[in-house]
Amino acid sequence: MRLNKFILLSLLLLFMLPGFSQSIKPEEVKKEMKRVADWQIEHFKDCFSGRDKAHHIADWTNGALYVGMQKWAAMADDDAYYNWLKNIGEEQNWTLHKRQYHADDHTIGQMYCELYRKYGDEKMIKATRKQFDFILYHPSQSKLNWRTPFHQDRWNWCDALFMSPPVWAQLYKITKEKKYLDFMLSEYKATTDFLFDKKENLYYRDEGYMGKLDNGTKIFWGRGNGWVFAGLANILKELDPKEKEYKYFLKIYKKMAKKLVEIQTPNGHWAMSLLGQEHYPTPETSGSSFFTFGLAWGINQGILDAETYEPVVRKAWNAMCNCITEDGMLGYVQPIGAAPGKAWPDKSEVYGTGAFLSAGSEVFKLYSK
């Protein structure tokens, strides 16, 4: 009898360990995604990150939301979410945001390309193609050094690698015109050569963080690297594995994936300063959701070994779901920033929701097999 009690207690303690669970149920994944998506649509016009007005519908913050919302729309049981996204496109007249070269203002183009694929309406991508053709034939001559003139006309901060490159890859896949892939690859390589730390296999947010330490560790921003990792998955899905360009992106992706396993926190999330988790114990759900998305995608594609990476994804997904409030808000999303900072259980952001929905789309596939 004592032995049975001991076994029972041991099992109970095991199930209480952070991130431990039996197989994740696909229907539960879908349920949590719907709760978060519905909450975000209801609160779409709210003010976030301490701002006094809502984000512009074509802002990068919302662009990242649409990337995840589109993935959810493809899973949902009705077209309500697709209709919501189409209404956004119509309101914006299917144009990108205001700055010609700035990667942030290209983000909404990812939604346009996906909606074009579903509906086949040329107007959805016409303006994006025209603007990208202009950039292609009038490339910025700016340096990648931070705060040099017109420096953000190129991808000199790691967030940019989520915002713009996937749109170039989508246009290449849609049009079969290699000029889009060639330009994107050239600029991506320039950014990677500049910001990628080959020893740590992580990206600096921008030049300003190189050589600096935070509590004795190099500063690799969690969400910043989340942007990169999710962007890599979204680029790779547009390319043929036989193409040499695919191999270039895959090499970076695998290096980052291996690193992410090593630095995941015991609670399942990733720290806001990736190498300094003891100094940043607070969960941060936007970067962690992007990592979860990218890792689950890799398993689903047969790129990553399930035995190694599935427990990481499982623990991370459970950690993200533990940060959803009763009414469906994803909490612990770090406000707009460029470096490790703070997050709160009652604070959210639209890009956090987008990251979570992206993660859920691949977690659902993983556990539906």
TrEMBL record:
A Gene Ontology MF term for this entry?
Answer: hydrolase activity
Keyword Cell wall biogenesis/degradation among record annotations: no
Give the matching SUPFAM superfamilies.
Answer: Six-hairpin glycosidases
Q: Which UniProt keywords apply?
A: Hydrolase, Signal
Query: Which Gene3D superfamilies does its entry note?
Result: 1.50.10.10
Give the signal peptide as a residue range, or say none if absent.
1-21
Protein name as it appears in the record: Glycoside hydrolase family 88 protein
